[in-house]
Amino acid sequence: RTTMNVPTEAYVALSGVLFAIGAMGVLVRRSAIMVFLSVELMLNAANLAIVAYARHWAGFDALAGLTGQTVVFVVLAVAAAEVAVGLAILIAIFRDRASTDVDGLAEVRL
Question: Distance of CA 24 to CAs 41, 63, 82, Å?
C-alpha cells in the first residue's frame, strides 16, 4: 500500500487562498451574515496553517503536533462563541431594522 505525502507548502498555499477569499468576502460583501461567514473562513484558513505546521514539526518533536492541535481547538471554541454572540446581535438588529446591510448598520446605536 502506498501513501501519498502532501508537502506542508501545499497546505499553507491552500490556507493562503482560503484566507484571501475570506478577506475579499469581508471587504466586498454587504450582508452582515456573509461577513460573518467570511470571517469564519479566515479563521479556518488560519487553523489549517496551524495544523499543517504542527504536522510538519511533529516529525521532530511529538509535543509540537499536540500543541498545534490544542491551539486549533481553542481557536475553534472562540470562533463558536463569536458566532453565537454575533448572530444574537444580528437577530436583535434585524428585529428592529429588518435589514442586515452592513452600510446601514453604521449608524445603529443600541
Answer: 11, 35, 20
Q: What would the DSSP string read from start to end of 20-48?
A: HHHHHHHHH--BHHHHHHHHHHHHHHHHH
Cell of 100: 442586515
Report the pLDDT averaged over residues 93-110: 69
For residues 59 and 56, what is the distance between their CA atoms, to the nearest angstrom?
A: 6
36-81 tens-digit pLDDT: 889 999 999 999 998 888 888 776 666 766 777 888 888 889 888 8
What CA–CA distances, in Å, run from 1 to 4, 6? Answer: 10, 16
Neighbours of 21 (CB within 10 A): 13
